[in-house]
Amino acid sequence: MSLEFLKDAADAVRATTPLVHCITNYVTVNDCANALLAAGASPIMSDELEDVVDITSICGGLDLNIGTLNLSSIEGMRAAGHKAAELGHPIVLDPVGAGASKLRIEIACSLLDELPVRVVRGNMSEVKALAGASSRARGVDVNPADVVDDDNLAEAAAFARAFAAKTGAVAAITGPIDVVADARRAFAIRNGVALQGKITGAGCMLTALTVAYEVAHADALEAAVAAVASMGLAGQVAAARMGELDGNGSFRTYLLDALYNQTGDALLSGALVEEVR
């Protein structure tokens, strides 16, 4: 199986500098902006209802992240989403904490139902909540029972393909082993380190990056696989730089540095990607 699409997608992001409209988590908005800049894309942040339609109109793709919901941002997401749909822009939905509250699951499901979402990017507990499967959310963290490992990888891939078939969106389910699937094919990505769970925003940054990759690369599944592998590999590179006195603050900086210095060739050579039958 050729993975040349990883290099093509990463190089396309730097060659085209996609402008990404982020309606995202207030906790991580700065990290998302810096991650996009590091990868060669360009961010713009706005959730004001009177602003979002114009902003989305000049962008290439839309990031909808429900991490810090409020009534204003919900309306902004809907307005921006319908404009992006009208323009044919890729929409990536991050259902942060879906299942932790009634509001979060209702809004995430309504956005998925109303909009032509191209990718859903979340942990297994969040995606299961959207699918209506049994899963008890632990805030924004994955339930330990939902963690994907070698013992349940085939089952997770089947779930991801079924979710994609039902919703029409690529499922990008991240964890110790990432699973990315459309209705026909599923990939496992084994890049990444546990330290990525020790900083705020690793998932939010990945969602923003996924939008940039979706704008730059035509194949939705390939673009999502490349984005997930890119962030995972950056985590490995960042962890390798850690010194004796470095902690999660240093890791966060090294992660951005790794994204900044990552090339398409480096992604192709370092990605640990396999198709799951």
What CATH architecture do you see?
3-Layer(aba) Sandwich
- The top level CATH class name: Alpha Beta
Instruction: Work out the helix count.
Output: 11
The general outline is: globular
Integer average pLDDT: 94
Please tell me how large the radius of gyration is: 17 Å
- Please identify the structural class as seen in this structure: alpha/beta
Distance between the termini: 13 Å
Total domain units: 1
Amount of helix:
40-55%
Short recap of the structure:
With 277 residues, this protein is of the alpha/beta class.
List keywords for this structure.
globular, 277 residues, alpha/beta, 9-stranded mixed β-sheet
Description:
- By secondary structure, the chain is α/β, with parallel strands linked by helices.
- It is 52% helix and 14% strand.
- It is built from eleven helices and nine strands.
- It has helices spanning 4-16, 29-39, 49-58, 71-87, 102-114, 124-131, 153-167, 202-216, 220-240, 248-261, 264-270, and strands at 19-23, 42-45, 61-65, 91-94, 119-122, 170-173, 178-181, 186-189, 273-276.
- Helix 1 runs antiparallel to helix 11 (264-270) and helix 8 (202-216) packs across helix 9.
Secondary structure topology:
Layout (H helix, E strand, L loop, with lengths): L3 H13 L2 E5 L5 H11 L2 E4 L3 H10 L2 E5 L5 H17 L3 E4 L7 H13 L4 E4 L1 H8 L21 H15 L2 E4 L4 E4 L4 E4 L12 H15 L3 H21 L7 H14 L2 H7 L2 E4 L1
Parallel strand pairs: 1-2, 1-3, 3-4, 4-5, 5-6
Antiparallel strand pairs: 6-7, 7-8, 8-9
Helix pairs in contact: 1-8, 1-9, 1-11, 2-8, 2-10, 3-4, 8-9, 9-10
